[in-house]
Amino acid sequence: MSAFKFKQFNIIQEKSAHKVGTDGVLLGSWVSCKKSNKVLDVGSGSALITLMIAQRNLDCSITAIEIDKQSSLEASLNIKNSNWQDRITILNTSLQQFRTQEKFDLIVSNPPFFPKIKSQERRDIARHTNTLSFEELIADSTNLLFKEGILAVVVPKSEEEVFCKIAKKYKLFCNRSCYIRGNKSSAIKRVLMEFSFVKSSTKKEYLIIEKSRHEYTEDYIQLSKEFYLNM
To answer: Are the CB atoms for 146 and 103 separated by under 8 Å?
Structure first.
């Protein structure tokens, strides 16, 4: 069974609807997780971000929820094969159906962000808002976060304003953001954002991934070198 190999864990993703991608690696590398004791990964896919956070914070416990059955089964296998299985719980459920009395210091999500479509293909469903809208993610997160908690996401630059507007409605404010360019001359395509209930000025960061094809910038190397084998 083939796997995407990282330095301290592997990701089996043969049947997962959401494959390993740069968005997930960026969010898992960048998110502020060192002080979080309880973490919730919403839409965990094959558990990439879950395992990245488990590697970065050896004291946290993580709950990962994934609505797609095949993805959750592969996530379970990836977690079982890791060094951190005792600290991770994987549940095959949607955020809307997730029931818990727990609160979380950090909720992290690489959410679906394309508009709803009629396709029933699992990969399409994973990438579109059919099963989880921005508003549902934000509204449910406000009920699951400690008052000092953080919601962290990665979204297209085109959706930044919409996401922030909905978050503000629920009294969540963007405290930190990072704007991602593929290379120096390309447009900003993705934004990493952290929200909390504390209203403050946003700390803005900028990251370029490549200097040229497959030649990575020093900033990207420093961000992701604890994970990628060849960094």
So the answer is: yes
